[in-house]
UniProtKB/TrEMBL annotation:
InterPro entries: Curlin_rpt (IPR009742). This is Curli production assembly protein CsgB. Residues 1-28 form the signal peptide. Residues 42-61 are annotated as: Disordered. It comes from Stutzerimonas zhaodongensis. The lineage of its organism: Bacteria, Pseudomonadati, Pseudomonadota, Gammaproteobacteria, Pseudomonadales. Belongs to the CsgA/CsgB family. The keyword Signal applies. Keywords: Signal. Pfam families: Curlin_rpt. The keyword Transferase does not apply.
């Protein structure tokens, strides 16, 4: 899939994923608390959730980490090493914290938060990495640190 198609796909899917995240059905569901998740599974309803650390193996596998949380006093962290990695953290609630750390090149990190007292941090080391943070609510705090060349960052905060 070319980059334009990936961006268009995300533009459509992210609002749907976020709507699902804040839905009463998901909030009422008792999702299991498990640290034994595959990279493409969702970690949810954990006060301090960590997506599995991923290291590139050189195989053509997709390196995607996705973490979705809804509730209060949430903390989520994704750490990845390799190339062409993708990390997404979606959070909804009160007193949210999210962190993505990526080492390598051509990596993408995205944090989307809705609620109050949001804190988001993305650290990327390598070339041609992309970081994006979108926050809706009150009490926003964002931090992006990037080392390398050909880097891009976008932070949007809405009230």
């Amino acid at each position: 899939m070319i980059d334009a198609q990936r961006i268009a796909c995300r533009a459509v899917l992210l609002p749907l994923l976020f709507a699902a995240l804040v839905s009463p059905t998901l909030l009422a569901a008792s999702l299991p608390n498990s640290l034994d998740l595959a990279p493409d599974e969702i970690a949810s309803s954990r006060p301090n959730a960590n997506a599995p650390t991923q290291t590139e193996t050189g195989s053509p596998t997709r390196n995607l980490a996705f973490l979705a949380q809804a509730g209060d006093s949430l903390s989520g962290n994704i750490s990845q090493t390799g190339n062409a990695l993708e990390a997404f953290i979606l959070q909804s609630g009160y007193a949210l914290e999210a962190s993505i750390e990526q080492h390598g090149s051509h990596n993408q990190g995205l944090i989307v938060q809705s609620g109050s007292y949001n804190q988001a941090r993305i650290e990327q080391y390598g070339a041609y990495n992309d970081a994006q943070i979108e926050q809706t609510g009150t009490g926003h705090s964002s931090s992006v640190t990037q080392h390398g060349r050909g880097l891009s960052v976008l932070v949007r905060q809405y009230r």
